[in-house]
Amino acid sequence: MTGGAAHDGPTGTGGAAHDGPAGTGRVARDAAAERAGAKPARTGRGGLQVVWIGLVLVALLAAFSVLAPRAFPTSFNLLNLVSDAAILLLLATGMTFVIITAGIDLSVGGVLVFSAVVAAKVTEATGSAALGAAGALVTGLAWGGLNGVLVALGRIPALIVTLGTLGMSLGGALLLTGGVDLRAPADLNLGLGLARWLGVPLIVWICAAITAALALALAFTRFGRHTYAIGSNAEAARRAGVAVRGHLIKVYGLAGLLAGLAGHLSLAKYGITGVSAHSTDNLQAIAAVVIGGTSLFGGVGTVAGTVIGVFIPVVLQNGFQILGVRPFWQQVVVGAVLVAAVYLDQWRRRARDQ
């Protein structure tokens, strides 16, 4: 791919081949190693940041446990933490793949809502929760595929494409519902929504299993290697034999699919479509990915780091509520951590290029 906006910097606006000749050589070596059946000798440059941000999470957990020993470190509260983070984790995992390719997806919150509306309507019309789930997944995949086609083939900047589909999906959801939240069928809300296994909500297990599978796929499969290669240097990846346009469509499709699943699980958990409740989900997902060490410039990141990035705001919000701190401080702290994470990424890039 020689000039597409699909991979031009963090928002598809410039600087696709930001690794220069070094990136070209690395991708070529990885491709040669892959053809020979060996694992590419590529290491995650964001690994150190993941360690540090992991230590930050541990410090937060320890601090709140000391400050509120009778309320915070209880099994009930910790279960609430993982339950609150589960659905956002799906969105952030899909976002991780997108941002590693040096793209962005602002539409995930709107796709979640639209998919939840489709799931509610299909379930109501057919009486089948399985068909409702299928409808949500197909809907999410369709929106994601549309994003991918417009970015990869239309060569429209990802920021513009996904901002447009955010408005389209939210507007479509409002048209389908008349601006009124739809209620989940009782079987779905009282079934999947309340189901538990080993004392943990089934929704948490589903999100954890999918996240773990995608973490392994990103780290150890050809799909993951191609994702890193495109984010590192899209032109070098193309010359090394990677189908850049096709892969980008798959990555955006994956993000949409996960948003569709998140919509169905959100409907089951909360019992309503939440048309107006997910307006900041895209920003929360992006913040979690960046805080977790994924570079907005592409080529660097891990799902493990994203998991940590998801839990930091959740722990802050939960701890502040228990301590009686005004919840607005959570936004201030998360914003500061986000700026610090981006600054660290910029500093690391400058140090590498010198």
TrEMBL record:
The chain crosses the membrane at residues 48-67, 87-117, 129-150, 156-176, 197-220, 283-316, 328-344. Residues 1-42 are annotated as: Disordered. It comes from [Actinomadura] parvosata subsp. kistnae. It holds the Pfam family BPD_transp_2. Keywords: Cell membrane, Membrane, Transmembrane, Transmembrane helix. One of its GO terms (molecular function) is transmembrane transporter activity. GO terms for cellular component: plasma membrane. It comes from the Bacteria. It is a multi-pass membrane protein. This is Sugar ABC transporter permease. Residues 27-37 have a biased composition (Basic and acidic residues). It is found in: Cell membrane.
